[in-house]
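G., the chain you wanted modeled:
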Amino acid sequence: MSSMPLSTANWHWKNKNVTPWAKTWFETELTTLSVQGEGEEVVLVSKVTDVDGDVELGQRKSKLITIFDVKIDLEWTGTASDGTEVSGKLTVPEVSHENTLDQTSNIHYDWSLTTAASPPVTALYTLARSRLPTALETKFAEFAAAIMEIHGKDIQVSAANSRVGTPAPGAASSSNPVSKSGTATPVTKEVKKKKEGVSTTKVNVDATFMASGDDLFGLLTDEKRIPLWSRNVAQSSGQPGSEYSLFGGGVKGKYVSVTPGKEVVQTWALSSPSWPSGHEATLTTTFDQKTDSTTIKFSLDGVPVGMEDEITRNLEGYYVQGLKSIGYVHIVPPHPSQFVTPSWREPPTRNGFATDSSDAPPSSVTGTIKVVAIAVAVLTLVAAFAIPYFSS
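Predicted structure as tokens:
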């Protein structure tokens, strides 16, 4: 493309307006969100009615910079505890780099309820106002990374080491694998498009819970129980060969093999701009039940190189933390420093005799034992003489 050094080619300011793409992204991504109450109550984003503002991706001194400030109008719907269909509207006046990533200001929400009020409707409205903002802000935090992933190659000569300009959670990309030295290594555009050309690795996450293997198996495969911890709608029959969908379509795949209470093998694909199109990983979930707890091991094989940290955070944040959020106690293995070595121990013996007097209990302990024994003996004698006297 150019014979000049990449640092020179990428030094000057460039920008690209991506507002039309951004509107489509919000319309697609936000309508996957839903939250669930303690019972059957469910609230979801049904439609994004308007996205007003500007979205640009800029480059300056070899760094990519996201510039966006938009107002979003959307509609939400839900089902109250008595079965009433509830609807309302929500306006987010400002979604910008400052309040989604820099967090220099808070995101504000303007709510309205369309359905006539009643106790169940009001309860659902309260649920929407308390839980839907968290789901929205999680999705907003992914926006900057999506901009750079899709459009960064259009304004930079090379994508190597460029994404540090905007620190975004989950901004790792399969098109930017990390070498053993820790330096990002660029790959060609053709390799990214070819499914067979995706370099992959494996991610493992373990967690131990005070629950049976069968109970945890049901929570991860039964579509009626999955929303309890995922806080989102799910489709899952738990049968080999059947398809499943979690987190409102955020994760999709197909069950390969199922051994109740023991192991689940399933294909796994993330619905994200950073996940290679058409690529599937394999998630093997094993349940190792002990006397009073069960260890779950999530082993995801086929993770695109460069996305290891993002996927690990997803498994820990959505799966492990999800189970913790509904009361399943997560057992954290103690660090060796937490164990206290006794100041004394029973002396080793040989033919019934202590081999080292230094291992015997402290003299203060043995003295106390003698005093207690003498006191018990005296009380016994007193009782022996006193009982006949009082009886007479």
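The first helix runs from residue 6 to 9.

Shout if anything looks off.
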